[in-house]
């Protein structure tokens, strides 16, 4: 099966409406301010260091992108993509389908080597279950009834917390919404057909939520994501001389002395509580709230 052919078809159908809605819809989220290591060192309690085991570096022909995975939301996808990056299987693949106001899709190993990743397809992990007490969110609106917010800097959709009292496992359903900077997974019309292809959200596409497995977010290089060469309006294909994913690797696979450190601003602070309270007052979607900033120390 040539996964790229089927995945492109599926995402074209899903993406057309999303791209139009984005172009005509809500305002862009404000860009986060630029912070440096001086800021991190001045207020260390306001930052957390991302785990090197969850950091993927993508060196592209447009520049570097660093992605933080959140394995709790999609453990099988995180493990598969960790393996692909560690084994260098994405190296040399291209961003073969890119819609300017939607997303950039890549990771088609089959098109590169004619054999694919050599790994099995992954069952869909569109939602996951979380105990609100064990995985507390910083939410927009009242805690008991909120349906969106942040967790460790990741945008998060959720069932209302009060429902946990009614379920047998004291948990609620959650998912990562397809906000700008989120990383998700291409698939065919079969919900359990994900394998190696991913897409980087350039803009919001909420119609993909709970339909495609989102598992990470760009913590550095969102400008690179937006700079990746796009294809024709509507379909995003074909692209003449597409941008290339030259090398992808896990930060944890590097020698300790060569690992970049990524510090993500904590979203459980008074500053973020005020920002989310304002979003509640203005009825602002989590995707239209400023992306949580990060600082990279080389």
Descriptive notes:
The chain has 298 residues and is α+β, with helices and mostly antiparallel strands. Helices cover 21% and strands 25% of the residues. It has helices at residues 3-24, 37-42, 75-86, 109-113, 222-227, 270-281, and strands spanning 47-49, 55-60, 63-69, 93-94, 97-99, 103-106, 128-130, 138-139, 148-151, 154-158, 172-175, 182-185, 198-201, 214-220, 244-250, 261-265, 294-297. A nine-stranded antiparallel beta sheet has the order 4-15-2-3-14-12-13-6-5, with helices on both faces. Strands 7-11-10-9-8 form a five-stranded antiparallel beta sheet, covered by helices on one side. Strand 9 (148-151) and strand 10 form a beta hairpin. The longest helix is centred in the first third of the chain and has 22 residues, at 3-24. The radius of gyration is 18 Å and the shape is globular. The chain starts with a helix and ends with a strand. The model is unreliable at 1-26 (pLDDT under 50).
